[in-house]
Specification:
CATH superfamily of the largest domain: Immunoglobulins
Bound molecules: 2-acetamido-2-deoxy-beta-D-glucopyranose
GO cellular component, one term: neuron projection
Keywords: Disulfide bond, Immunoglobulin domain, Repeat, Signal
CATH topology of the largest domain: Immunoglobulin-like
Protein name: Ig-like domain-containing protein
Organism: Rotaria magnacalcarata
Strand content: 35-45%
Radius of gyration: 41 Å
Number of strands: 29
Shape: rod-shaped
Length: about 375
């Protein structure tokens, strides 16, 4: 049997299909080179049609066709049945002339060159081209939630996909406004000098014309040092000096801190850690530490510094609370109203004794618990 197969292979390659005129019967078939494209998982049908018009009955009996896969030198069918034990393979031989090879549930390894031979050395060659929809290669692609990144650093997003043909890659960036922008068509893109405001969400889409396209989202978490704003009541304070009318019966001094990851927030009054009727809470992105002075007197004058620190850094912001009546004792009422907005460094030197408060540090752990 093996000898017979070897023989036909040798004949087929040496005679290159010349028709021997001594032979009374030659089956004819289309010997064109054909490419069949099939998507992975589907069924492939490889046609082999042999014309038997001139055959006599006694010649048909000895007529044989075999199918081979050349890449792995494997014989797939012989006469009218599959022989390699692969249950996906069958021979469709409903008509005498038809010897079609069917392969179900195509996988990528089925790609290659197939040949349908007759026992007199004619053959037809087919290329089975297997198309593979894109699939993200996890080992080479950035994970969906990469560990947090510090401001100022660079970060490279990688996206690789397997597929046949090789998938095209698009990397999209999502802005807050839900605007989408293609930022790269390469497998890797580096975002330089990451800032707190760097777009947080990216998405990679791989496509090769054989659906479904696949995608992966990346959510970046950015570590940044505390950013501090001070408010009195609900007004954001931009100047260092704040003049307070001692008739104000309540002052809400608020330190709003934005930072990631969470860290400590505390107040210092005139170089001492300070704690007076405080209140600390979280908003969506921020930590707020609020000091409430229920009745403002001279004693509460001075420099109030809000200090915030996390593992990226420490920042602080100070304001100087000045009792309006103290600073204006030597001036007239009209002068007061102008200096109120023009006072600069000179007002910082105003020192007034204040009652020492019990000192307690407000520490906010990353879980948000007071320690
Ligand atoms: C050769 O390829 C065919 C079709 O892909 C497969 O069915 C067969 O198992 C392979 N044979 C070997 C020896 O790998
Ligand atoms: C099969 O073999 C042919 C010729 O030997 C080669 O061109 C082709 O790349 C091979 N295909 C695969 C899938 O190995
Ligand atoms: C970011 O990339 C730029 C350009 O390659 C390089 O000069 C810089 O040192 C990198 N920054 C960091 C923090 O690695
Ligand atoms: C990085 O960005 C910050 C602002 O976010 C900017 O001040 C700084 O100059 C930038 N550094 C480089 C090397 O571009
Ligand atoms: C802050 O608000 C309280 C009442 O909510 C008011 O009595 C007080 O005068 C305000 N303080 C300042 C400095 O505006």
């Amino acid at each position: 049997m093996l000898l017979f197969l070897l023989l036909i292979i040798i004949i087929s390659s040496s005679t290159s299909n010349e028709i021997d005129s001594d032979q009374p019967f030659q089956p004819k078939f289309d010997q064109s080179y054909e490419t069949i494209s099939v998507v992975v998982g589907k069924r492939a049908l490889l046609p082999c049609y042999v014309s038997l018009q001139d055959a006599k009955n006694n010649e048909l009996g000895s007529f044989k066709v075999i199918w081979m896969k050349l890449n792995n030198s494997s014989i797939l069918t012989m006469e009218d049945r599959p022989i390699n034990g692969d249950s996906r393979i069958s021979l469709l031989h409903a008509y005498a002339e038809e010897w079609n090879l069917q392969i179900d549930d195509i996988d990528e390894d089925d790609a290659g060159v197939y040949r349908c031979f007759t026992n007199n050395g004619l053959y037809k060659t087919l290329v089975l081209d297997v198309k593979v929809p894109p699939k993200i290669i996890n080992e080479l692609t950035t994970e969906p939630y990469p560990s947090s990144i510090r401001t100022g650093s660079n970060f490279t997003i990688k996206c690789y996909a397997h597929g046949k043909p090789t998938p095209n890659i698009r990397l999209l960036s999502y802005h807050q406004s839900d605007n989408v922008q293609i930022i790269s068509e390469q497998n890797q893109v580096t975002i330089f000098n990451i800032s707190r405001h760097t777009n947080r969400r990216y998405e990679c889409i791989a496509s090769n014309g054989y659906p479904p396209d696949v995608s992966r989202s990346f959510q970046l978490t950015i570590q940044y040092a505390p950013e501090i704003n001070i408010f009195i009541n609900e007004t954001k304070i931009l100047d260092r000096d704040v003049f307070v009318n001692s008739e104000s019966n309540e002052i809400r001094l608020k330190c709003q801190v934005s930072m990631y990851p969470a860290g400590k927030v505390y107040w210092i009054k005139d170089k001492n850690r300070f704690n007076y009727n405080y209140h600390i809470y979280h908003t969506e992105n921020d930590i707020v530490s609020e000091l409430i002075v229920t009745y403002f007197t001279n004693n509460y004058q001075g420099e109030y510094t809000c200090v915030a620190s996390n593992l990226v850094g420490t920042n602080s912001k100070s304001i100087q609370l000045i009792d309006l009546s103290t600073t204006t004792t030597a001036t007239t009422t009209t002068e007061r109203s102008t200096t109120r907005y023009q006072r600069t460094k000179s007002t910082q030197s105003v020192t007034v004794p204040y009652s020492t408060e019990s000192l307690r540090m407000m520490t906010l752990s990353s879980e948000g618990n007071l320690q």
